[in-house]
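Please produce the structure of this protein holding molybdenum atom.
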Amino acid sequence: MGVHRYPRPLPSEITPREVYINRRRVLAGGAALALGAALPGLLGAAGNSGWRTRLGDASAGPFGTDQELTPRQNATTYNNFFEFGTRKTDPMQRARHMRTDPWSVSIEGEVEKGGTYALEDLLDGRSFEERIYRLRCVEAWSMVIPWIGFPLADLLKRVQPTSRAKYVAFETLADPEVMPGVERGILDWPYRDALRIDEAVHPLTILAVGMYDDPLPPQNGAPLRLVVPWKYGFKSVKSIVAMRLTEERPICLWEEHAPNEYGWYANVNPNVDHPRWDQSRERRIGELGRRETLLYNGYGEEVAHLYPGDPEDYW
Ligand SMILES: Nc1nc2c(c(=O)[nH]1)N[C@H]1C(S)=C(S)[C@@H](COP(=O)(O)O)O[C@H]1N2
Ligand SMILES: [Mo]
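Below is the modeled complex.
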């Protein structure tokens, strides 16, 4: 991933977690919940952005972490979104020019119900969950982010993969007009990555539409991005415009770019070093010092069964 800099953490927000957690408690309280339950239908009918108004009603997902949340300020200003440039602050400064509404996603290949779906169509009537996940970048930094989204499995159920579908590939928007990194051709766009279908339907794998109670900011992959928490962050494709179900294993952008550095599976593994740096530790953004990196980013209980044999073979 080209340039590797390790700038000092940005100053943390003042008491972000306390404020945030209290807000959730209020939302989870009886009265708020009853009100929330009554509202989605009404608001959903109000217009194209109906789903946005329901993000605050997300129920707590089953796979939270009790670790300190990364301050929103850090998670939205320190980003990898190479379409917009290679500096961590490029996405924050430039992604606002990406038009994310209207948005559609083309679903192709080995599916019964393929086609081009408007985002609202994919999100209408869906209930959202909050998932507090660790995000471990292959560059050895990490965050803890409260995503709002829904299982990818739910979407796949709707489009009905055929029996030949063994992989799901994802593709990002590539618009040279608003994306300087695309314009300069710093990678072979569009950004592409893929999962095995059993990874794709794993309950931990979500499509996110929000974070910290709000719609995704453009720099974090608005309006729809993948989140696969046991894999290196580069598998979590942002601003998805296409999904393709395939029988053959798709080639991903990073393995194509540097096959000896970025594997196809890219499962987080402290025992498999990147050829140019150590992967056994990570810097949690907003913290001093380093933490131990955990096998499967700490989600081994949920996902180890997907990878029989030696975990080191799935890099
Ligand atoms: N389209 C696209 N998706 C992407 C990337 C990218 O450059 N382009 N970067 C990936 C990498 S390397 C990481 S670590 C995460 C970062 O997500 P975040 O900025 O929301 O923390 O997004 C991933 N998804
Ligand atoms: Mo990353």
